[in-house]
Amino acid sequence: MNKNTINFFIITMFTILYGCGSTDNNIDSKMGAVPTAPSAYLSDLKTSAGEINPVFSKDVTGYTLQLDNSIDAVDITPVAEDPLAEVDINGNIITPEEAFGLTNIRVGYPTVLIIKVTSSDNSMSRTYSLIITRNAASNADLLDIQIDCAVISPAFKQDTIIYTASVAPSVPSVNIKAVLKDPTATLHIDHSIVNSGDYSNVDLAPGLNVIDVVATAQDNTTEKVYTIVITRGYSDADLSNIAVSDNNNDVIYLSPVFDKDITTYVAQLKPTSDSINIILGTIDPYSTTSINGALTMHSGVNTVSVVVRSSDVSTERTYTIFAVK
Q1: What is the pLDDT of residues 69-103, one digit of tens each?
Q2: Which parts of 214-297 fold into alpha helices (H)?
Q3: DSSP of 26-90
Q4: What is the domain partition of the chain in residue ranges?
Q5: Suppose 181 and one of 86, 141, 208, 291 were both cysteines; which one would form an S-S bond, judging by CB atoms 3.0 to 4.6 Å apart?
Q6: What are the angstrom distances between the C-alpha of 2 and each of 6, 7, 8, 9, 14?
Q7: Domain 239-324 class in CATH
Q8: For residue 7, is pLDDT > 80?
Q9: For the domain with range 42-134, which CATH number is right: 3.40.462, 2.40.10, 3.40.50, 2.60.40?
Q10: What CATH architecture is 142-232?
């Protein structure tokens, strides 16, 4: 066979196979692209937030995705090797690269996605799983603390954790409320659980009362303690008057004349003064007094002490009377 005969044969076969006079110079387009082999594998598993664990590999079928607490929605996009494969997520058929959206993801309730891939020729299938969890919040800050009958000092700031307040000695209890910055946190006031923004009644003893307001974040790990030191009462421990009389109802005069800042006195008794009575007045009517020493008088010097304790129990003052018979 000569050279011309060979060329004629090639041209004839080309014309039979692909047609004559075509303006398309791309032979592949006439032959058709080589189709992807049927497959039930994923080539990727994409997420709009966070990163799956472990790193994707088509041979690994189980994954987890942990989302920050601020994220409550995510799109999951499975990419199939076979572009004509069927992808089913929890019973929902999607196209091989369509995003599957999840919303309102709750803390403490893992979302499980079962992703089933079926090859385009229905000859095989493969199942992948993705477990999605949303982290609990870690915010344990307060927005405010208030006392119904007192003002805290300094003014509230969420990063200031120690406060003071004062109430009159006649106030046996106060109502305290605190407001959580994160409504998913929990709140305790003086060891009692309280709803954010609700008042809690706290009993007060005379003097200093240390009250803790504790916020615990949703993660049950992060905790912040705010402390309020409430003083009930006044610090005044002065007397306003001392009146002394004897068993004959005779007035016994003190020397020097009473002054709240003078704490030592002499009382000259009569020979018939077998006992004395002492009447005390206090500047703070809620302060307490006690008398130490016998009120039955004997010959010579009789020592009687009067102890005044302030209503906030922070101060004591002692007045002494030397009663001479």
Answers
A1: 999 999 999 999 999 999 999 999 998 788 999 99
A2: none
A3: -HHHHH-PPPPPP---EEEEEESSS-EES---TT--EEEEEE-TT---EEEEEEESSTT-EEEET
A4: 1-34, 42-134, 142-232, 239-324
A5: 141
A6: 7, 9, 10, 11, 19
A7: mainly beta
A8: no
A9: 2.60.40
A10: Sandwich (2.60)
